[in-house]
Specification:
homodimer, about 170 residues, mainly alpha, Arc Repressor Mutant, subunit A, Tetracycline Repressor, domain 2, DNA-binding, transcription cis-regulatory region binding (chains A, B), Tet_transcr_reg_TetR-rel_C_sf (chains A, B)
Chain lengths: ~170, ~170
DNA sequence: GCAAATGTAAAACGTTCGTTTTACATTTGT
DNA sequence: ACAAATGTAAAACGAACGTTTTACATTTGC
């Protein structure tokens, strides 16, 4: 059973595929297979549900980025888009849809992006043997770019980003 | 006066800042300074208004990308974010918000992204002196990445992308 | 100078929204 | 075994949605 997990999973799927605003509560109750009363007991509100979806997604996404090389970073993204598809970044999309002024959501997005930025910096430092914030920023841009370009160009953008990152890294090494 | 232009401009501003779904028609009539009857005479429907906003934005955006070097491409993006701010790509956001199944909108997005892809290929070819689809894809990824990373990292992502693109181009030349 | 066109203001349309409530069935811990 | 907890089904809530309509004022072209 575990209604909470079932609800969160169903909500993530619907929010990701159709958008936060466009997804009504009745569609959520249907997909989660529960009454609206149970949904509200577990979720509190639609915004709180979205915030919990984002927190859960952050956990799942960041777990995949526990790597030691920039190459593995993009390999992890290749896996991710193979499993989850190419619909852009749910965090940025949530923030944009809510104008950035829905407390729980804006904070979940900020926390995720900060953690993501820190992780990229760590991976670049580990791979290169020293800190290089400028290179890390470039790798972050490539990662974000691959994620969003993949929406209309397909998963090939991830390999393009991976190859570009390899060149930048090689140059930073010599 | 020119109600149509005033409406389109007001709509672009509101859709961009608060999202398509979250922007109600009364907020649009207020911002455009016209009655709902006049709005519907000029726009037809909310979705048609969004489609027209996107078509108009495509015109304005692509006009800025009439350049001959990759460096100028990113300089144009720097100008754009300075004028328009960093809220991600309105085209991708519109598509995501509507699940990709609102006819006029999905087509405007597809047309824009196809034109954008073609333009990047042309600029790379002009700058390099020959076609290089793989490099063009990387430049496109950097452009898209700078646009979206700027939402939380600020406009500095555009200079990071510009520097990265210069390295990739230099390498492709030798 | 008078129709046609174009505008406003505001009410009303039916629908759908997120959320709460009522009434009742089933499980569960002690 | 019995009370508390947890679930369902479904109606109801007021508010807001996108859109249309009614009634009237102003401009505009011939």
């Amino acid at each position: 059973m575990d209604m909470t997990r079932k609800l969160t999973a169903a909500a993530e799927r619907l929010f990701d595929r159709h958008g936060y605003m466009a997804t009504g509560m009745d569609r959520l109750t249907d997909a989660a297979g529960m009454s609206s009363r149970t949904l509200y007991k577990h979720a509190g509100s639609k915004a709180a549900l979205m915030a919990r979806v984002l927190t859960e997604r952050d956990r799942r996404f960041m777990a995949r980025l526990e790597v030691r090389t920039v190459d593995a970073l993009f390999a992890a993204l290749e896996d991710w888009v193979r499993v989850e598809g190419c619909r852009g970044c749910l965090f940025l999309r949530s923030r944009a849809e809510t104008g950035g002024d829905t407390p729980g959501i804006a904070e979940a997005v900020a926390a995720h992006k900060e953690a993501f930025h820190r992780r990229v910096g760590e991976v670049v430092a580990t791979d290169l043997g020293r800190e290089d914030p400028a290179l890390a920023e470039q790798v972050l841009v490539l990662f974000e770019g691959a994620t969003h370009a993949a929406v209309y160009r397909g998963a090939q953008t991830v390999s393009a980003a991976k190859a570009a990152a390899a060149i930048l890294l090689e140059r930073a090494r010599s």
